[in-house]
Please model this.
Amino acid sequence: MDFIEELTWRGMIHQMMPGTDEQLKKEMTTAYLGIDPTADSLHIGHLVGVMMLKHFQRSGHKPIALVGGATGMIGDPSMKSQERKLLDEQTLRHNQEAIKRQLAKFLDFDSTAPNAAEMVNNYDWMKNFSFLDFIRDIGKHITVNYMMAKDSVKKRLSGESQQGMSFTEFSYQLVQGYDFLNLYREKGCRLQLGGSDQWGNITTGTELIRRTTGGEAFALTCPLITKADGGKFGKTESGNVWLDPRYTSPYKFYQFWLNVSDADAEKYIKIFTELTREEIEELVAQQAADPGQRPLQKRLAREITVMVHSQADYDAAVEASQILFSNHAGEALHRLDETTLLQVMEGVPQFKVDARLFDGEGIKLVDLLTEAAAFFPSKGEMRKMTQQGGLSINKEKVADPFQVVTSADLLNGKYLLAQRGKKNYALIIAD
Model:
């Protein structure tokens, strides 16, 4: 597989230094991509870079994932209007291990192949580097004029930010540049990958390598992902879409991709999956022929949910998403954990009732759904709907309005799903 050719048709190249393609065609090449370790999980904003590393390894080259333990302590000024919080070493190490576990779903770290992936942390080579040594050995090679010309610096100094820019952040590009130099020396790394906002930092590294060793190194960036409507990719009302199920459940993760627009789905399926050009063209044709079936979104959601989570998580997410639309979902409803249940029921009217109502012999449905929770306006209407076969509890038809429900009937020991007719739902919460 030709790496540049692959990234080109997928729309994943923004800028590339001359000679990059020739270097990759000449020999197995080592490249690195930096990952900010400010959290113990990646979010989907990281996935473009991770997929670049994945395609790089599939092309026969060696990927290095660099966790920025040192640079994370400083904070990259690129496209940021203010400085970020600084992390201690213990937190950084914890985050590094968590991130490696996630990356292992995309990259082969464990094989004996010459292009097996590696993870490094720049804190390991920066922690014993004294300030005086750094400014003497590294700082003297890059002029202030060169550093001031970078867009990330110019924007912060032009008055767009009221806070200006600290020396700490100003020095960031030098530290990142030294990462590239160190990996060039220690691991023969010739290429740095990153987002388009990193171009200035990456080229500082190639310049530092040229000035200190006379060697040649290369840079390649991908475009920053946007939504067709101009909104920020990967952000929802509740914040980032994370890869760790503790922060974003597989159901929510699946729903995010399932609900992207047609235009975004066509772009994202190239970037975030390994599907071939022919497979994607076929899906695009199917979408054009019958947009209502949304084959692009369904396939995108499937591919990426299985890759990040598992086939079982994907199957459970699909099953959960069909619960409100299926008349035969009783068993599936009982299998849902509380978090997913509440996410499936987002937007469904809720009634809180006294949990003691379900104790002992329980409460009659006719009393529960009219007096305790006003799901029906009257007992007469509730009885009539039940006689017509229009009432379900936990997706099971109710034949008797005087049927008793107890704590044993509650989902996760706390919830009851009532359905009136085809589309009217209520979630009864025993509180």
Notes: The chain has a mean pLDDT of 91. The CA atoms of residues 69 and 92 lie 6 Å apart. The two ends are 58 Å apart (CA to CA).
